[in-house]
Amino acid sequence: MLRIPNNPKGYCLLPLLLLACLIAQSSSLGSFRLGRHVNGFLGGPSKIATLQQSMDVEDLWFEQRLDHLQPDDTRTWQQRYFVNDAFYRNDSHAPVFLMIGGEGEATKKWMHEGAWVRYAEHFGALCIQLEHRFYGKSHPTSDLSTSNLAYLSSEQALADLANFVTTMKTKYNMDAKQKWIAFGGSYPGSLAAWAREKYPHLIDGSISSSGPLLAQVDFSQYFEVVKSSLASYKPECVEAVTRGIAQVEILLKHMIGQRNLDEKFKTCTPLKDSIENQLDISNLFENIAGNFAGVVQYNKDNSPHANITIDEICDVMLNTTMGPPVTRLAAVNDMLLKQSESKCLDYKYEKMIADMKNVSWDSEAAKGMRQWTYQTCTEFGFYQTSENKSDTFGDRFGVDFFIRQCMDIFSERMDGKFLEQAVAQTNKYYGALKPATTQVLYVHGSIDPWHALGLYVSPNANTPTIYIEGTAHCANMYEPVNSDPPQLKAARNKILKYLAKLLDGYASFASFT
């Protein structure tokens, strides 16, 4: 079997990012912002403890170029990657499965768990995971200053992948017949599709899970899917949330009501001190809405994020014995505070901005939120807005609220016009929802709000899709368990058959269960 040795001389000398965790006594960044969990969109492969989780995986390092877009720039840095060769047949046809890292620390558990590892067993594949630049321990620069973040982009990340694949093919004398298949979920799901599009001579096929292909500044559809997902349990749940949000608005109008909200929602600072600060109040409402969004996005996935379900929060919202809807809304907030191990709800806008402006690799924001926010401000938008007063989550966090954050955190030039131009450029460069590439399978779940920006209905046979009813974000990627719904099991079998097609039927296999 292939053994890829570590390179001690290539060890990253920059300060290492502390292990991402949920413990935050009163973090203004919260555990769920911009549709992203504190540990990244994907997190670990399973919330169930197994023997595989204790298996150690070695940190390996690859010398990567800092700027692929400037041929004369010779600066380099050390990029982290992992390898599992336990199933590798090491012959001229054995495939290489490449898991693309995303907007969080690359997780070693994925090297022994997750559906892609089960596919590797079938096909005798070598498994490699490459951490995304500027996330986890892959530090291209000394800090996260805005000038340094200029080297953070999806285009640079894809060039990293291309350089990595080219070097690995040569370094380990891989046969030209050996096919590389890219895997990714959420933003890395987009990267998996785009890697095939931009580097078809290196990436022979991709499984793109829950990947948004359409960049969009005002992602208003996000909360539309959140509402429909809540309603899929019981329509009355949405009605109760709507009434709860309306009652928060009423209570905010009076000092006694403000004190009532402080007590119910365990605010870190009194609302009376912020009642004239619209940014604080916008942040408060976005936090409350985010409680529901985070639960919906990972509903019943076999992932560490999915500890609370739509059923549970809707049962709370429909429990009239607890009191009026605003009290039930606060009870849901309690559930999420407890899950994130936070003592209070920190809604102060300036504190959030101050935390986000910390450029140190050791800061809380460096666990991915500062970097991901930068990418939304310069490439994607993806802002989950609510700006209709009569809608469920009200009108307190429209698109201007998020554009303001780009300007306050990074640069005054990142205004609405800048964002519209950046998003238009992204869609032009990658093709948005009309990809020209082939040999990519797009997988989405109906519960997942991100499917609204993805390719989930197949326009033709060259862009096949799998749309899994009743599943959420990246559900097909997690470690399979017997309790998985039949449609999820069927989707994994379809993915396995598609891989067999990509690999020209290489290796015999049984049904994937």
Automatic annotation (TrEMBL):
Highest taxon, organism lineage: Eukaryota
Record keywords: Glycoprotein, Hydrolase, Protease, Signal
Gene3D superfamilies registered for this protein in UniProt: alpha/beta hydrolase, Serine carboxypeptidase S28, SKS domain
Signal sequence bounds: 1-28
UniProt source species: Drosophila virilis (Fruit fly)
Protein encoded by which gene: Dvir\GJ13120
Molecular functions (GO terms): dipeptidyl-peptidase activity; serine-type exopeptidase activity
SUPFAM superfamilies in alphabetical order: alpha/beta-Hydrolases
Keyword flag Signal: yes
Lineage, top ranks: Eukaryota, Metazoa, Ecdysozoa, Arthropoda, Hexapoda
Similarity comment text for this entry: Belongs to the peptidase S28 family.
Protein name: Serine protease K12H4.7
One GO BP: proteolysis
PANTHER family found in the cross-reference section: PROTEASE S28 PRO-X CARBOXYPEPTIDASE-RELATED (PTHR11010), SERINE PROTEASE 16 (PTHR11010:SF117)
